[in-house]
Amino acid sequence: MMVGPMIIATGEDGEVLSPPDDLIQLPAFSTKRAMEFSHLQHFKRLIKSQLPDLQFRLLGDGADPPDFFLSRSDTKFGLELTMFASAQRRERAAFFSKLHERLLLAYGKGRLRGLSGIKVDMAFGELGAKPVSVDDVLFDQLIEAFDKLGKQKRPSMAPDVEIPSDEWPNGTVGPLNWYASSYADYPFRGSKLSNIMGFEVEYMHRQWTTTAEVERAINERIMAKDRAGVDELLIVAGGPDQAGRQFPAEAILASHLLEKGTPAFVKPAHIQRVFIDVWGAERLYLIHDCAAA
To answer: How much is the pTM?
Structure first.
């Protein structure tokens, strides 16, 4: 079951939302085409169960655009795929994937033991500041800090024992501030790092987003793909990218707008139908349909 975002406030741009910044690491796709085909298969499965009158069969690759040529009721049409994605969130993930790889190399050399079941949040200077490069000196200091963390006695996990937040392990290495935010009696899973080590390191940043920004981002994707030859558009929210990274926040934000909001989506000149496939919620939305107009 997918939960909604935290609603921080309501202003001129609608609700201010704080979705989780979790990352799920799936196997990477060998090519962009392989990713698109996976998205198409997910779409095909949902349309069969939720919009059966709009089922289709695959004819083959498109002319880019569109991505695919499909057929419905013996009529050929072009389907283009795109993703509702946060560039800022994905930039952070790209940075942290490199940091995770360096941590895994250290782990392979016998360091970073005793950390399974611990999640660390990391910030760069002020909370919300952009990640900065971590040179070898800073990285060695970070490894030393995490080695010590793995040897420390863990806070009590008893449900009736409340530990003040300022007593949880934390530290500073140059511009890096880290904080052991969660302990569990089981390994963490999600990123490549945690899947191997059971230890997670995440960016201590919550990206506030308004419903107006979500609506605007979806409309931008529609207009960017509105061209001759694109008859239908599939917008994927929360699906895996080519690197296998899946961000539940994208699905949560799209779902919240579609279920709780009153979005005003643009009417494209060429595209006849626009679908939004919300992964995690396993819901397919038809947000524009010329045939029903």
So the answer is: 0.77
Q: Are 188 and 200 in contact (CB under 8 A)?
A: yes
How crowded is residue 272: how many other Cβ atoms within 10 Å of its Cβ? 15
185 and 106 part of one domain: yes
Q: Give CA–CA dist 293/283, Å, rounded.
A: 22
169 in a structural domain: yes
Q: How many domains, in total, are found in the chain?
A: 2
Domain span holding position 287: 6-86+208-292
Strand partners, 238: none
Distances (CA, A) of 148 to 145, 152, 180, 252: 5, 6, 12, 36
Kindly report, residue by residue over 75-86, the tens digit of the pLDDT.
Answer: 999 999 999 988
Helix residue ranges, H only, 109-185: 136-151
Confidence of residue 119 (pLDDT cuts 50, 70, 90): very high
Amino acid identity at 163:
I
Query: Vertex 284, ends 251 and 267: CA angle to 5°?
Result: 95
Residue 274's φ and ψ, nearest 5 degrees, are -125, 125
The tens digit of pLDDT for each residue in 196-212 reads 999 999 876 666 788 99
Per the CB < 8 A criterion, the answer to whether 35 and 257 are in contact is no
Is 96 in the same domain as 174? yes
